[in-house]
């Protein structure tokens, strides 16, 4: 069984797929999360859609012929990589391997933000958390605790996320309106006013006592004697 | 001062970055900083920064102070003043030490940047599970009550935008000239109107504090609030409150707001 | 260019990779979101780790030989699919996250300090750089290159930062110990002559004793982590 890599099967479109086109298509399809239309790919590669489709079809049969663990599929008008169903049993085993039934701290925090800020974008969640939230969002999506609820009407139209009915169920409430109000936020303490003359030493002593003005806590004893 | 060339202001990551740049311009080894020239160049750049209202951080000024100290020590008559000499030497050594450290990490940063750039073409696949496997996942336990979830949300939303007040990064001594002036006035009043510089700075734990006190004295002198008396070079400096002056705080408001943060945690040499 | 599908190249390990193993590994690697250890894969597939590693290596060279748009890399202690950099120009169009935006010099210096001095506090970073490091630290946290790893046992309990596995991944290494040592990175560093007058060495020793100075530049930096 020798794959006919050099010839495009299907017979429609150009006879030979350009190696650069193949490479570009495989690379793009590796990173996309949603199926991509052949049209879109054609625009990015600046080649005719025909050629894109022909190359994708060629790749599709190549993977089958070579017995790869992934397949290329055309769904919902777009193309995407999927795992080969023949390997599903291994993938399932892997997915279950060491998988905790508890949410990670990051996921829990992200869930709390989505619950109280929904609908909310991934970028906004990252901003609030101060760390990249992609992993946590993906994991919550997979657990069915949050879902896509639309797109924001801003450039790029980022996806908006909200909580699901599964989330309500697990939390034991029937509507998000039943979520407790957010605890009183601790306001940032205002900076102390500049002390008047006469009060400087006292202020310094206070700061010292708080350990704020101490340059190296490790030197405390030595410096204070 | 630095008439021969201009340095692009604002393109430096910090005082050491600038210092390294200046040293490179003079084509000298890092160990042979021509203090006088470098100091002038450095001050020229820093003053330019101030003029275009860049956020000149305290460290730029601290390094400037150290450089001035070094330059001053060179210009002073080389008499038997081991104190001054030692002080200058120590300042110089600390400056070198910090420069060397900084240079290493600057290089390491450059290396990391090059590595990251050369490998940026490797984009990992980070696509979630296919629908079919999601059903396989075990039911996840939230493990929290609604109340607890609210608390978590509250914390997450409250903590930003400024991260938790991390006392650690406030640790450098922060003392403004105005503050120091206030302390000098306090001390003078307590001492009955006259005290030596040593007495005024007895409470200082860091050299930078001493420097700030000195700047404060100059400001007070300029405002005609104190008289300074030093009978001879290196003799004791006596500070006397001007009896005709009233200690109006408003006068302090005009003082320039230098904020001193010590370059390192060195203690005042005794 | 006919792929030698039946033979394992690379030559190390078992001579022929089991087609099922190949398929299973490719399928599993398609769903992972971080590098997976060969060990884990071996447990899931219930085969020896050797065999997993040999098959992965074979697949890795196969993809290269076939000019695929994806590559298999072993980084941060595990294996994962990546796009071939040759297709980067197209991939960038589909990857949102500003991965391509370069880190500022401030961020790179800060990253270097964290990488070589970890665990390290923000104050220490500021001290070495001579400027405030808050912005740089935030940006690195946001990009997932560094993370909080604990608190220092000193008054104020400042947060300690360290590098993440994402950092290792992006640098293509498996461990920070693989980073070149600091002295190796200093350009044409003729080991400096004894610094002229003054007690430079003594001062350094004093600083070292206080634990606030770096080891002498002549020493191996990585060693003290």
Describe this structure in words.
The complex is a heterotrimer, with two copies of chain A (225 residues) and one copy of chain B (270 residues). With 225 residues, chain A is α+β, with helices and mostly antiparallel strands. In chain A, 44% of the residues lie in helices and 11% in strands. Chain A is built from ten helices and five strands, in the order H-H-H-E-E-H-H-E-H-H-E-E-H-H-H. Chain A has a three-stranded antiparallel β-sheet with strand order 3-5-4. Chain A is globular, with a radius of gyration of 28 Å. In chain B, strand 3 and strand 4 form a beta hairpin. Chain B starts with 14 loop residues before the first helix and ends in a 10-residue tail after the last strand. Chain B is mostly helical. In chain B, strands 2-4-3 form a three-stranded antiparallel β-sheet. A two-stranded antiparallel ribbon of chain B has the order 1-5. Helices cover 52% and strands 6% of the residues of chain B. Chains in contact: A-B, A-C, B-C.
Topology:
The complex is a heterotrimer, with 2 copies of chain A (225 residues) and 1 copy of chain B (270 residues).
Chain A: H1 19-31, H2 38-45, H3 49-65, E1 70-75, E2 78-83, H4 88-96, H5 105-117, E3 120-121, H6 122-129, H7 134-142, E4 146-151, E5 159-163, H8 165-171, H9 200-210, H10 220-224
Antiparallel strand pairs in A: 1-2, 3-5, 4-5
Helix pairs in contact in A: 2-3, 5-7
Chain B: H1 15-25, H2 35-51, H3 58-75, H4 82-119, H5 131-134, H6 146-158, E1 175-176, H7 177-190, E2 194-196, H8 197-200, H9 207-222, E3 226-229, E4 238-241, H10 249-253, E5 259-260
Antiparallel strand pairs in B: 1-5, 2-4, 3-4
Fraction of residues in H or I helices of chain B: 40-55%
Strand content of chain A: 5-15%
Largest interface by residue count? B-C, 62 and 76 residues
What is the number of beta strands of chain B? Answer: 5
- Rg over alpha carbons of chain B: 26 Å
Average predicted confidence as pLDDT of chain B: 71
The percent range for strand residues of chain B is 5-15%
Name the quaternary structure. Answer: heterotrimer
